Amino acid sequence: SGTRASTTGNMQVYSIVVTEDEEQKQKLAPLHFNQPVALRAPVLLTFAADFNRFTQWCNSSKAEPGYTNFLSFFTSAIDALLVAQNVCVAAENLGLGICYLGTTTYNAREIIRVLEMPKLTFPVTTVAVGYPDESPELTDRLPLEGIVHYEKYTKYTESRIRELYSYKENLEQMQQFVQENNKETLAQVFTDVRYKKADNEFFSAKMIETLKEQGFMD
To answer: What residues does 48 pair with on adjacent strands?
Structure first.
């Protein structure tokens, strides 16, 4: 199902590394901030942007590859994410549970080392897969009218923003997050605790350096 996903130019510039070995999971877990699911799930799937394989094919076929640039990384990253979502939809349709690990890009350099990934590859996301032992409720989402724009992007007024996010802000769980983090608003939990500017800047710089190391910024 994953490999039937749309792909740029039918190049399939992605790879999937399957991790089932407990020792390998132990090495990867700290790189995923020791999230319990990274250790407990029977399978971890690391989806990687991969121009290594395609470049080798070009080199062996009297063709001059030109993929050591950011556009090629972005193209292959899109390919990898399309595959990942196809896999997740298929897995859930078969009764499996999935969990995306957004920590992959934070520690891409270290994951590359653990998985022994060559130049022109880059891990873009990891998905934990297994049969769930519970059936949690669906997480909240913004209403469609808040994210779908027709013909052109519609500007948001402050009152419209308040309206769109009021449901999320009034959820008991979200109000608990605000209290536990000693914040005034839910937005402050995101900006001051979960996704801080300093962290974003640090991991952005690290990601760019890793892209250079992997040959995508020549």
So the answer is: 15, 123
